[in-house]
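re: ur question from earlier - yeah i can do the single chain one, its not a big deal. heres the input i used so u can compare w yours
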Amino acid sequence: MSTEPRMQNPAAVLPDITGAVNLLYKAAHSAGVPGRTLELVHLRASQINGCGACVDSGARAARKAGETEDRLFSVATWRETPYFTEAERAALALAEAATRLADRADAVPDAIWDEAARHFEEKELAALVLWVATTNFFNRLNVTTRQQAPQNWG
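and the output i got, formated as tokens:
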């Protein structure tokens, strides 16, 4: 399988996408959910979807936001590690369920939703759902067109 991009990033081909994505980003990041939680959610959904570009950029953004190496290395196994708060665990569970919609008949079970609602207000829940959807949007564009992480990062 080739790893070369199939085309330019769709946002470069259709420049109006950038403005829309910026509005989604702003809305999700202005609702009161800690930025580090949003970074973890983005990273986990991107891992599930196999989006190398988003895993790379997500880990770098999380580190820049103050995330620790232990937590970054453990996002894929968050259930088995002691590094995450109850609220972060609820957000990660919601992100996984909302990313894996086809895996079960009740894609986002009440237990997962209720646990997230225990830790986040309605506006914050809206931001989490929006951010997971936006992350999945990025992942689908990047994976479909085989976008790569920039090679000049080191």
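The CA atoms of residues 7 and 54 lie 17 Å apart. not sure if urs matches, ping me
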